[in-house]
Amino acid sequence: VAIRRPARGIGFPFLQFPLRSTIGCLRDSPPSSTRSTPTSPLSRPAPPPLGKMAAAALANGDVRAGGGGAVPRPTNPMVTPLLTDLYQFSMAYAYWKAGKHLDRAVFDLYFRKSPFAGEFTVFGGLEECIRFIANFKFKEEEINFLRTALPTCEDGFFEYLSSIDCSDVEVYAIPEGSAVFPKVPLMIIEGPVAVVQLLETPFLSLVNYASLVTTNAARHRLVAGKPKNLLEFGLRRAQGPDGGISASRYSYMGGFDATSNVAAGRLFGIPIRGTHSHAFVSSFLGLDEIIDKALSSSDGSNKCEDFVSLVENWLVKIQGASSLRGSFGETNQSELAAFTSYALAFPNSFLALVDTYDVMRSGVPNFCAVALALNDMGYKAVGIRLDSGDLAYLSIETRKFFCAIEKEFGVVGFGKTNITASNDLNEETIDALNKQGHEVDSFGIGTYLVTCYAQAALGCVFKLVEINKQPRIKLSEDVTKVYMSVPISIQSEKI
């Protein structure tokens, strides 16, 4: 990893991924270039690990190896050289026809305006771009398809496409996960113009959404605050399977703590979390449906043969508690059966959805009865989830109930039992909850996070800034679209 500074000012660290000498091997020293001079090796961070998916790919041999290492293929198998716009091949053919295909070109990938009316963006998608170029090679069947799509192109062009890879391409990039700003190049791509042109659409596809959702996640983290747990629950509302997988991955990069997406957990090592649905609660009719009522203590020293009766006894105690008298009456017995059944299945991770019927008159008291029964057996319940209603009010009232239970029955720490809130949360609703003094510990966020509801796209662009060492610029009637590339001897500055 070569950390580079501009000729003047304070330098933003750039990672260099040279593929000329080896594919997938990061050099410790920069190549001979006029871009900049290397800095002292005092701060050369290692690149982030590729994760479990990369390790599995290496073990399975699903990589393209170079002289010094190997880089796994892109996570999504649809990311191939054909994942591009037709006009990229049209231009590549025109370059080839004119004998310009080997001209040395430099392109900058950047965006013009930060998303969500904000002041920053968090860069995501770099790893997938590196995986893509490290494995860039046309297959025979892909070449055959291109022959049918471009029937007027000469055979020599397709022979050329069959021969190319990205071994003569260099990528200079700001580290993934960095805060970045408009009109600052996130990536500088240098190589033969025809080859680099074929990278434009895949790179934009891999960076645009990744950076957008990472930024969205970071903004939610800033609003929620560092102590709160943020859980990504968006798979069912995402734009297809790839959108769901990518959202889980980049939400985690942006500051979320866990995901409900099991596939993303396997691929990227993200912690997975989940409870149960309203359907689970309403599927029970009564406690008599529970057949196996036995529960061993957490240390295995004893066994309760009738955990259901223990729960019922605790519910009677709660109903008779002086500090809680009059706050609720008879609770829903089918809900109690669902909670008890779930606790028997997961005594170490019992977290109940309490708003199927009535939060304060049924859900919370039923949860407490089961949680106190688990406490007798040496287990600690995780908490509750609120998925509807006035979340600030309900969380405050629930916290009061938990504190009353702790005081009434002397269960140390019960007042701090976790409260999770969900239900179409976004930055604005979390900010509103903050202003109301809520008692929520964890937020489950889905639709507004993964769909980036507040802004559909980031709008990264890929612009030619140099050809054969000659600077180039695109002029426009819209002055906001005029991009002045910095000289290649100067890099991004961060103050």
Report on this structure.
37% of the residues lie in helices and 14% in strands. With 495 residues, it is an alpha/beta fold. Among the domains are: 86-222 and 455-481, nicotinate phosphoribosyltransferase, CATH 3.20.140; 275-423, TIM Barrel, CATH 3.20.20. The strands form five sheets. A six-stranded antiparallel sheet has the order 1-6-8-4-17-18. A six-stranded parallel sheet has the order 10-9-16-15-14-13. The protein has a two-stranded antiparallel ribbon with strand order 2-3. Helix 7 (200-224) packs across helix 8, helix 8 crosses helix 9 and helix 13 (359-376) packs parallel to helix 14 (391-409). Mean pLDDT is 87; it is low at 1-12 and 18-68.
Give short descriptive properties of this protein.
6-stranded antiparallel β-sheet; 6-stranded parallel β-sheet; 18 strands; 495 residues; nicotinate phosphoribosyltransferase; alpha/beta
What is the level-2 CATH architecture name of the domain at 86-222 and 455-481? Alpha-Beta Barrel
Shape assignment: elongated
- Structural class comes to alpha/beta
Q: What is the number of E strands?
A: 18
Count up the helices.
16
Distance between the termini: 22 Å
Helix content bin: 25-40%
Mean pLDDT: 87
CATH topology of the domain at 86-222 and 455-481: nicotinate phosphoribosyltransferase
Low-confidence stretches: 1-12, 18-68
Report the C-alpha radius of gyration, rounded: 28 Å
Strand order of the largest sheet: 1-6-8-4-17-18
CATH class of the domain at 86-222 and 455-481: Alpha Beta
β-strand percent reads 5-15%
Q: Main β-sheet, in a few words?
A: 6 strands, antiparallel
> What is the fourth-level CATH superfamily of the domain at 86-222 and 455-481?
nicotinate phosphoribosyltransferase
